[in-house]
Write a structure and sequence with these properties.
Zn-dependent protease, contains TPR repeats; transmembrane helix; mainly alpha
């Protein structure tokens, strides 16, 4: 802006005066908005402290009993609960906004998979969410297993490869890649199968799977001829 374009003192005073008059005229409205914002912030804090936190704690207590039944392979009790304790199905529904409700979906998915209810298992596993590198990739891998059982090989490959990528460690990734390689073979996609097996051998050479994948590589190379 040039000096000629700069407002003079009189103009500045007029602008300031108009601003003051606007504030005075609308002070009630502005105050209402400010108070509303304060009330919203206070409400959120109160909700977190007095509603969400106690709810999460209660959900964790309920989940403990269901987890115990799950670990003991008492699947019906884990799913449906008892007279005194909620089961995983009810916890997932009643406490859906809590970590325990989220984790319940993973447990339910595992149980349904073991029961051979692959579609139901898949739907439950899809409801689970996490971002760390152990549980989340393991659940993604189980989704892949569901897809295999449901005869959806392309979806299975995507899940196995995603699990391997998300985990990016020797504890989980090699097995996920091995599963992906097997599915590639079932589709007679030997190029991608070979590429997948070689990744295990080269990138995860310390993993147990790396010791056995050599046989897979030899087999696929012979099938390509």
């Amino acid at each position: 802006m040039s000096k000629k374009e700069l407002p003079n003192d009189k103009v500045i005073e007029e602008i300031a005066s108009k601003s003051e008059r606007y504030v005075e005229k609308n002070i009630s409205k502005i105050l209402v908005v400010v108070l509303a914002l304060i009330a919203i912030v206070a409400g959120v804090f109160a909700y977190l402290q007095f509603v969400k936190k106690p709810k999460a704690e209660k959900a964790a207590t309920e989940l403990y009993m269901a987890e115990s039944a799950f670990m003991e392979e008492r699947d019906s009790l884990a799913l449906n609960g008892s007279t005194n304790n909620l089961g995983l199905l009810e916890i997932a529904k009643k406490y859906s906004s809590t970590p325990s409700g989220n984790l319940s979906h993973a447990y339910i998915g595992i149980i349904y998979y073991d029961m051979g209810k692959y579609e139901e298992a898949l739907q439950e596993l899809k409801k689970f969410s996490a971002s760390e590198k152990i549980v989340s990739p393991s659940i993604e891998r189980l989704k892949g297993d569901c897809y295999v059982q449901l005869d959806k090989p392309q979806e299975a490959i995507k899940s196995f490869e995603k699990a391997a990528k998300d985990a990016s460690n020797e504890a989980i990734s090699p097995l996920c890649l091995l599963k992906a390689g097997r599915v590639y073979e079932s589709l007679k996609d030997y190029d991608n199968a070979l590429k997948t097996y070689q990744t295990i051998k080269e990138k995860y050479y310390m993993a147990p799977e790396a010791n056995t994948v050599a046989a897979d590589i030899i087999r696929v190379e012979s099938l390509k001829k």
